[in-house]
Design brief:
2 copies of one chain form a homodimer. The first copy, chain A, is an alpha/beta fold and about 550 residues long. In chain A, the strands form 7 sheets. In chain A, strands 1, 2, 3, 4, 5, 6, 14, 15, 16, 17, 18 and 19 form a 12-stranded mixed β-sheet that branches. Chains A and B meet through helix 6, strand 9, helix 10 and strand 25 of A and helix 6, strand 9, helix 10 and strand 25 of B. Chains A, B: One of its GO terms (biological process) is tetrahydrofolate interconversion. Chains A, B: It catalyses: (6S)-5,6,7,8-tetrahydrofolate + formate + ATP = (6R)-10-formyltetrahydrofolate + ADP + phosphate. Chains A, B: GO terms for molecular function: ATP binding; formate-tetrahydrofolate ligase activity.
Chain lengths: ~550, ~550
């Protein structure tokens, strides 16, 4: 096995022209809008033309609660896509786009790893096809129009203290979290408290990822609440008349991006909403388009299955009319060991007992996924330090849960290392075993939905909330928002709201600190803990070492 | 003549695939990085490969002082390019990219007009190939890194009151002109006064447009002054270690964009610096690349010749080693009438006397251009309301100045309407009459350079400045910046600093209010009057009417 870095492997990729990748899916070159020679958008015209086709099988890749050891969810998504193609299936993957800003703080995230990657890796971590820039523009146009409305007389009677629409930048910039704007005198407007989030936290991002088409996008943008009046009645984006222009700014961004894996298989990379205050999945348009073009579509959701899969099922699938045919739950021996109490420095040492102990986390995710009526298989993403005894311990545990765990070596061997999983996924998806249903019905009360997630997914005793929070939820129910699903924002490191509680905790409660209405995206965000929507840069930002070398290659980004 | 709007004409364009346009210039499809089917970037590799070729002829299109009547400088640039191709020459045009933000305030600017336009018009007024978004990202990365540096201990001892590097957005947003950042407590840094400009006002934009290549870009970015210490010593971008990462963010943006005219002739559209606090020309890389690929390159500069041509000559040509072979000075009968005192409402009525009076403005521009040693021809951009007597009055006047004025009907007839001008331009450019020299030598003192521009170009009695301004200029000379050219920022409507003084005023002085050092771009900005670097939106922003119609077309943008 080669000991090359991800970027070295990515740079050696023998990429095919993107038109060839499109042709594999039946997309003619007229319907592929190229961005360079290795990236393209799929035209809306083409997407419209395939709506009557049957859907392929939808496979969700999710994971145990993340640990610093890393699980390799995206790597497994890419590997499985390649594996399915290797065993003769027509498969595509759907993953999220990366946010530009954070790459200048810590080193950039690859799209996958080892021999299971999507390329072009560098462009995907920089401007890519400009989608996030378009979201930034659309978001900030609305911001400017709100202040402009107030400036010119405030006909809508916006309470300037209750403008909830902030601004965004795709940059880690803590100085912009809390600002006072419109200083400097009469010509600059009315000073007020304001602030910036990072672009991926924008409700526009969540909407772009949930909208079925441009008409739906425009409607959802119009539905967004941007401010309140003194009487607490909401002011909508539609009232500001920004929805049409925002849609124009987003019309190209709405078209899914097509790139390729190292093995030249098709990969849709589109959208990237936060996995805490939003639902953390790639776009509905990418997934539904891929399902029309491929027999198998492998996709992933952010964080562990308690957040990612839950939101994928209860928000994305519910709203887009999707139903997964199988779920792959990614685990690693290293992560099991950490869940079993081993510290990061000791991960290199065999510790079967710790694995057995840590498997409780995995077991709970297995039963949770099953509760959605979807068959599940565990992928053990192999690390070179894993011992046979450790792998067997995981397999044994999973077998006792009524599922199967399959060792996967796609990181080291690409599709050749993941054939067994591919065959198993095909078997599960074709078995007809899936009988998907969301966890709760639309009609359930908002707090009951939260409580249901807390009990059924987090295995907590209950969700708890102050009267003010409950009153707010009731008010939204009165205003017609009671049918919305819940978008939980809590730590991804634990089933509980305490990041240090690994494994499969019980006896905990889920305290709700705050609730927010994303009326355009169509969910109620339930915040349990600190949520950071504008990151800062570290003491030594990676940007200090990023540069072009004499060969014109980017150094320091990865 | 059809009475179609610019956008109707643009939508009827029979565009050729951009690869065909590239092939006309000898650019292979591997060296064209497509953005959709009608836009492409020219690869740096290709640009490097043509450096040893001889240059074509460089033609500058400039104009009289602008009036609300409109002169049609870009329209004439496009028309002349088409006209040169029509008469059998291999010609390309080079124009600037449009800023996105202002389109949501007032209706968007087309690239040209009538039958002399560049397409795709809508994309060019929206995200285009993402260059401006890249500049926004690069600029704001530096901003974030400055505040981050201060946050983590301020090793460079930046005086927080003297951070001169602001932030940018490509949006008209007056609320961001003056802000206080880093509020909200310890985790968000040290509160300080800050602000945002529009992206085109960024020094990064000016640098992108003046840099010869990526290495030069990185050096210039490093040279930018971002703050001062208490002892007034400058802190450079290089000290913040942002120059490398900014270069990475700008590496695609540095490659010139290729599109086409309505007549399928090549058009480079690249860069768009402000014409007041910056030099207002398209990029050096686009112009120098075009000169290697075409026998004639037609380009333009912002505002009238007093600002645009002067900066083109003294900043762009000087720094890039370019020398124009001929200048086309655009005038209209309508603008001559306004210069002669006619109000906008009365422009439809014949008024030969007013034209004769207004021609003084044109005459001064003619002699100014000649003073650079470059032959000049006047293009009368025809309006349907122009009478023969009016056109003859302009022609007579110009003839008396020792030049020729040629009536051009490219707006109505495309290249067929501008053949005479094309022939004349060829004759001038091939005559060898050009003997270009900048107005002042590098070695001249900074204030003397300002005074020289004031006297020789504005025909003022003198430039005047407070002691503080003169002291600042002296200080920069001591610090080694004395060799820099001057970038004047004054009203574009008059030779003087009073916008209402039309025609060819004399007896005025040029009061310098403020000077700023753009150490990376490489010029000293001299501000005479109010300069707005962050526009606001009007009471009824055009954004309110911009939307996609049922046919998927953009309404309200034009």
């Amino acid at each position: 096995m080669a000991h090359k870095s991800d970027i070295e492997i990515a740079r050696e990729a023998k990429k095919r022209p993107i038109q060839e990748i499109g042709a594999r899916l039946g997309i003619g070159s007229d319907d592929l809008l190229p961005y360079g020679h290795d990236k393209a958008k799929v035209s809306q015209t083409f997407i419209d033309s395939v709506q009557d086709r049957p859907n392929g099988k939808l496979i969700l890749v999710t994971a145990i609660n993340p640990t610093p050891a890393g699980e390799g969810k995206t790597t497994t998504t890419v590997g499985l896509g390649d594996g399915l193609n290797r065993i003769g299936k027509n498969a595509a993957i759907c993953i999220r786009e990366a946010s530009l800003g954070p790459n200048f703080g810590m080193k950039g995230g690859a799209a996958g790893g080892g021999y299971a990657q999507v390329v072009p890796m560098e462009e995907m971590n920089l401007h890519f096809t400009g989608d996030f820039h378009a979201i930034t523009s659309a978001h900030n146009l609305l911001s400017a129009m709100i202040d402009n409305h107030i400036y010119w007389g405030n006909e809508l009677e916006i309470d300037q203290r209750r403008v909830v629409w902030r601004r965004v930048l795709d940059m880690n910039d803590r100085a912009l979290r809390d600002v006072v704007t419109s200083l400097g005198g009469v010509a600059n407007g009315f000073p007020r408290q304001a602030g910036f989030d990072i672009t991926v936290a924008s409700e526009v991002m969540a909407i772009l990822c949930l909208a079925k088409n441009l008409a739906d996008l425009e409607k959802r943008l119009g539905d967004m609440i941007v401010a309140y009046r003194r009487d607490r009645s909401p002011v909508y984006c539609r009232d500001i008349k920004a929805d049409g222009a925002m849609t124009v700014l987003l019309k190209d961004a709405m078209q899914p991006n097509l790139v390729q894996t190292l093995e030249n298989n098709p990969a849709f990379v589109h959208g990237g909403p936060f996995a805490n205050i939003a639902h953390g999945c790639n776009s509905v348009t990418a997934t539904t388009t891929a399902l029309k073009l491929a027999d198998y579509v492998v996709t992933e959701a952010g964080f562990g299955a308690d957040l990612g899969a839950e939101k994928f099922m209860n928000i994305k699938c519910r709203k887009a009319g999707l139903a997964p045919d199988a779920v792959v739950l990614v685990a690693t021996c290293r992560a099991m060991k950490m869940n079993g109490g081993v510290t990061k420095d000791d991960l290199g040492r065999e510790d079967v007992d710790a694995i057995r102990k840590g498997c409780a986390n995995l077991g709970r995710h297995i039963s949770n996924v099953k509760s959605f009526g979807v068959p599940v298989v565990v992928a053990i993403n192999h690390f070179v330090t894993d011992t046979d005894a450790e792998v067997e311990a995981v397999k044994d545990y999973v077998a006792r849960q009524g599922a199967e765990a399959i060792l996967c070596k796609h990181w080291a061997h690409g599709s050749a290392g993941i054939e067994d999983l591919a065959h198993k996924v095909v078997q599960l998806a074709e078995s007809g075993a899936a009988n998907f249903a969301p966890l709760y019905p639309d009609e359930m009360g908002l707090f009951d939905k939260i409580d249901t997630i807390a009990r059924r997914i987090y295995h907590a005793d209950a969700a708890i909330a102050d009267k003010s929070v409950r009153d707010q939820l009731h008010a939204w129910e009165q205003q017609g928002y009671g049918h919305l699903p819940i978008c939980m924002a809590k730590t991804q490191y634990s089933f509980s709201t305490d990041a240090n509680l690994r494994g499969a905790p019980t006896g905990h409660t889920v305290p709700v600190r705050e609730v927010r209405l994303s009326a355009g995206a169509g969910f109620v965000v339930v915040i349990c803990g600190e949520i950071m929507t504008m990151p800062g840069l570290p003491r030594q930002p990676s940007a200090e070492n990023i540069r072009l070398n004499d060969a014109g290659e980017i150094e320091g980004l990865f």
